[in-house]
Design brief:
single chain, 201 residues, mainly alpha
């Protein structure tokens, strides 16, 4: 069962990780950008932050899952470290961009607080993981990386929760407000439970 869930997680991560490619083939009015006001779309800083967020967030999601599994780490330690460095850089860029974008989130203040909190926690857990491995604390490094990837995986859970809630409630606006929190809070709870049970992943 654990292997099946891991495979499902990996498939979803790969699919959503490739999501930024959509913007190369689909008119922007048919994407998330179509929900933003002309004023925001003409804000160069916001637009730069948006593309930095989806490109580097997609990269972190795409490669992050491969970091888990003791057999892979043991056999390919150099690759694990290289991927880890790329992952950290990608998260730093994407999370800082996300915090900035959070101030312009659809749904108002509640959504903004939700997405800004996610961006901050994502950045902090990732940097804490780096700090712990530099101190030689492997277990704490692994645990913080689990929290970090739980935040990264919010890109997937957002896209699962939002259509589900919209179909149930028929209220896209309030569904989006709820998803600003649902996309990451349950993920961190699952990460906490994993860390309570597993010492070395």
């Amino acid at each position: 069962m654990r292997k099946l869930l891991f495979v499902i997680m990996c498939v979803l991560a790969l699919l959503i990780g490739a999501y930024p490619l959509l913007y190369a083939f689909v008119e922007h009015k048919h994407t998330f950008l179509g929900s933003k006001s002309p004023e925001i779309l003409h804000n160069i800083i916001w637009k730069t932050a948006f593309f930095a967020h989806i490109i580097f967030g997609g990269l972190a999601l795409f490669i992050g899952w491969r970091q888990f599994g003791s057999s892979f780490r043991s056999k390919y330690l150099k690759i694990h470290r290289k991927l880890g460095s790329i992952y950290v850089i990608a998260v730093v860029i994407s999370s800082v961009s996300a915090v900035y974008m959070g101030f312009y989130a659809n749904g108002g203040l509640i959504s903004s607080i939700g997405f800004i909190s996610l961006g901050c926690i994502w950045l902090i857990t990732t940097l804490m993981a780096v700090w712990q491995i530099r101190k030689g604390n492997v277990v704490m490094h692994q645990q913080f990386m689990i929290y970090s990837y739980a935040c990264t995986f919010a890109a997937v859970t957002l896209r699962l929760w939002y259509p589900l809630l919209t179909n149930i409630t028929g209220d896209p606006e309030n569904s989006y407000i709820a998803v600003a929190w649902l996309c990451w809070v349950p993920n961190l709870l699952v990460a906490y439970l994993i860390n309570k049970r597993i010492v070395v992943v």
